[in-house]
Amino acid sequence: MSSLLRSTLSARISKLPSLPAEDDDDENESDNSIGPLPGSGMGPPAMQVSLPTRHPRAARAPNPEFAPISASSYFAEALQVAVPSRNLDCRVYYTPPTFADGTVMVCHHGAGYSGLTFACFAKEITDMTKGECGMLALDTRRHGKTVSTSDQTEDDLSIDVLVADFSEALRAIYPDPSVAPSLLFVGHSMGGSVVTRSCPILLEHKYRVTGVAVLDVVEGSAIDALPFMNNLLNARPDGFNSVEEAIEWHVNTKTIRNAHSARISIPSIVVSDPDAVLPYQWRTPLRSTAPYWLSWFKGLSSTFLQARTARILILAGADRLDNELMIGQMQGKFQMVVIPGVGHMLQEDDPRRLAEIMVEFWRRNDRVVVGVKKVGDS
Questions:
Q1: Alpha-carbon distance 369 to 348, whole Å?
Q2: 176 labelled catalytic
Q3: Rg of the chain over CA atoms, in angstroms?
Q4: How many CB atoms lie within 10 A of CB 175?
Q5: Which of 26, 151, 160, 308 matches a 20 to 30 Å C-alpha distance to 57?
Q6: DSSP 226
């Protein structure tokens, strides 16, 4: 059973905690603003169904155990990077490598989350490599602090749009491929599909790509789980009385099993709406992304196997590989690692173990002698 499907079932049986109202979005903004940066039945759109009216929960004082934590000690800096070709002002969290010709792990989050889902993981990578490997995580369109600069509403989250956004954002950050660091792509769930499809585009533009890591998504299992997505969304609360309540809900439902990480990442995925019955609403309502679900995952396996770089698939459980991946694994076309004791948000649940895996993968493939195959090369 895929971890996405397990998350769906656990969400249905988890009991929502009672919590309260207050907090200011400006304060939350400061929590993930760090300073200047230099120079999942995802078939057809969800049907509209009539659900019982949800009455707001009685408010109580925010639980200090789930108070937001600033991201300032997890990345070195942050900035809104202008990407004019995509009409985006893109939020980027960045820790540069200590060497100019070093490597940067570039992380893309899954649907509904933000770049701060990689905050604890980024800190582990920086510590383990003593800064030799840099970290970059961005918020994609309609997520986190990335905003559209267009006068028109641009809600499209289809895979081609996300891939173009990601590729152009990196070209804006590193305009000259000849002096850009080596890039190692890390994508979680939907983000795994984005980085995999972006790899050939950036290689064509002469960027050096050390490898691509896909976190907890398999095309076959993801598509199989899509019919259950409405159940998952129906089990989610419409909103929260406070940011602390949002954090506590994610921890108590085991959506994120690491409370410390949740206190960093969750504030960026809710937004203050004083006029709403519940004053903290989802920044990216997942039901609105339904038309794009199938596009995110269809064709992922073949694209992953065709990537002209080292490849690693990291799963939260012994997921069932589809036929393409099973054949590819037997042929040694990619490395596969299973992390026990984590859920779908494995980068938050056990950031240290994921960092250990990724540092080993990076060291094995970053400085490969010409003529020696990288892990995953066919």
A1: 34
A2: no
A3: 20
A4: 10
A5: 26
A6: G
**Number of C-beta neighbours around residue 371 at 10 A:** 5
Annotated active-site residue in 23, 139, 165, 216? 216
> Which pair of structure tokens corresponds to residue 180?
């850009």
User: CB count, 10 Å around CB of 373?
Assistant: 11
In degrees, rounded to 5, the angle at the alpha carbon of residue 115 between the alpha carbons of residues 293 and 130 is 135
Active site residue 216: yes
Residue 12 has pLDDT above 60, yes or no: no
- Catalytic site includes residue 273: no
Task: For 73-131, write each residue's pLDDT tens digit.
Answer: 999 999 999 999 999 999 999 999 998 889 999 999 999 999 999 999 999 999 999 99
Q: Which residue has the tokens 């939907």?
A: 190
Please pick, among 109, 143, 250, 344, the residue that the annotation labels catalytic.
344
Residue 253 has pLDDT above 50, yes or no: yes
Residues 189, 261, 268, 301: which is the catalytic one? Answer: 189
Residue 19 has pLDDT above 70, yes or no: no
- At residue 368, the pLDDT reads 52
